[in-house]
Specification:
By secondary structure, the protein is α/β, with parallel strands linked by helices. It has 16 helices and 10 strands. β4, α6 and β5 form a beta-alpha-beta unit. α4 packs parallel to α5, α9 crosses α10 and α13 crosses α14. Bound molecules: ligand F0G.
Length: 366
């Protein structure tokens, strides 16, 4: 069987593509589902919205194997867990980490335990986690409480924790920054992304710094993270006991990578800002209907943030005086099908009509 696998098939996945930048050894068994190499889509409309000859690109991480950016970190974390002989993974999750961990555990043939805040996980993500065969435990409370339990269980040595407190996760997620630099032939000037547990902003910043150190790029972007208004601990500088937002993926009140995220923002001359649930949902709809990119609500935070910075006159949080021809990348983190409830709520009932060309013409008013 193996002799029929071509080189191009073997070279798929972030470990094969960026092996020398990752903590893998020649003998590390690579557990990959072909993650990474996601599209960086130029948006004419968003570029025009910013103006001044700027260019906006959308990095669509929703097309990873389990539909989110988590797969980049999971391939490295699970490969390392298998290398170390660990038989079980554990994570807390708002849904995407659990889906990803469950899939990579299944592929590796090891078990996976996920601790989820009860009633707070989007339908598609819970479905995925179940389908991949993970052991699912729902706990009363929120993500932050679930992560605390995971950290205590992790200390027993029985499990590998695959949340973003695991440095192998961060290492894998750096590859998204590498891909952007490779595709644009340099780093962008600004990078916008949603922030929850703050692992991804930490990873992108590490990736950009690594590539400038290796002279693969000539500059570093300003890192701009967006939190939902009701779940914005970093923005407010305090733990939020009961975080609330429609964007359940980033409903987090005490991010594990808080310090690293602050460092990324300060060192890069960036910012943490907030957007409302209404702005998030409007951006989600806009991106689907104007660009053909359907993302989950949390992912639309970067696009909502871009709109806010285009309209804002607040000098520290505005693109109105942005340098000519700046390049801006917005990461969208997860696929829209994972979290369909709001969009389903907007759909009108489809009433069947007679199956004739005339009736169809009348119905579509064309
Ligand atoms: N976008 C999506 C779709 C996410 O699922 C997450 C995090 C984020 C953004 C924020 O990324 O935590 O690195 O700042 N989801 C985690 C999970 C918490 O459990 O799936 P972050």
């Amino acid at each position: 069987m193996h002799s029929t696998i071509t080189k191009s098939q073997r070279s798929r996945g972030v470990v094969e593509r960026y092996r020398k930048f990752l903590p893998v050894l020649p003998e590390t068994p690579v557990i990959s589902l072909g993650e990474g190499n996601t599209p960086l889509i130029h948006s004419t409309r968003l570029s025009q919205r910013v103006g001044r000859g700027c260019e906006v690109f959308v990095k669509n991480e929703g097309v990873n194997p389990t539909g989110s950016f988590k797969d980049r970190g999971m391939t490295v974390a699970v490969s390392k867990a298998v290398e170390r002989g660990k038989a079980a993974l554990i994570c807390a999750s708002t849904g995407n980490t659990s889906a990803s961990a469950a899939a990579y555990a299944a592929h590796a043939g090891i078990s996976c335990v996920v601790i989820l805040p009860a009633g707070k996980i989007a339908t598609g993500k819970l479905l995925q986690t179940f389908a991949y065969g993970a052991k699912i435990v729902a706990v009363d409370g929120n993500f932050d409480g679930a992560l605390q339990i995971v950290q205590e269980l992790g200390e027993t040595g029985d499990f590998t924790i695959v949340n973003s407190i695991n440095p192998d996760r961060i290492a894998g997620q750096k590859t998204a920054a590498f891909e952007i630099v490779d595709e644009l032939d340099d780093a962008p000037d600004f990078h916008l992304l949603p922030v929850g547990n703050a692992g991804n902003i930490t990873a992108y910043w590490a990736g950009y710094r690594e590539f400038i150190a290796r002279e693969r790029s000539t500059k570093l972007p300003a890192m701009i993270g967006f939190q939902a208004m009701g779940a914005a601990p970093i923005f407010h500088g305090r733990i939020i006991e009961n975080p609330e937002t429609i964007a359940s993926a980033i409903r987090i009140g005490n991010p594990a990578n808080w310090k690293q995220a602050r460092a990324a923002v300060v060192e890069s001359g960036g910012a943490i800002d907030i957007i409302s649930d209404e702005e998030i949902l409007a951006a989600q709809k806009w991106l689907a209907q104007k660009e053909g990119i359907f993302v989950e609500p949390a992912s639309a935070a970067s696009i909502a943030g871009l709109f806010k910075w285009c309209d804002s006159t607040h000098s520290a949080h505005s693109f109105q005086k942005i340098r000519e021809a700046s390049r801006i990348v917005c990461t969208v983190t997860g696929h829209g099908l994972k979290d369909p409830d709001v969009t389903i709520g907007r759909m009108k009932e489809l009433k069947p009509i007679a199956a004739t060309v005339m009736d169809v013409r009348r119905a579509i008013e064309f």
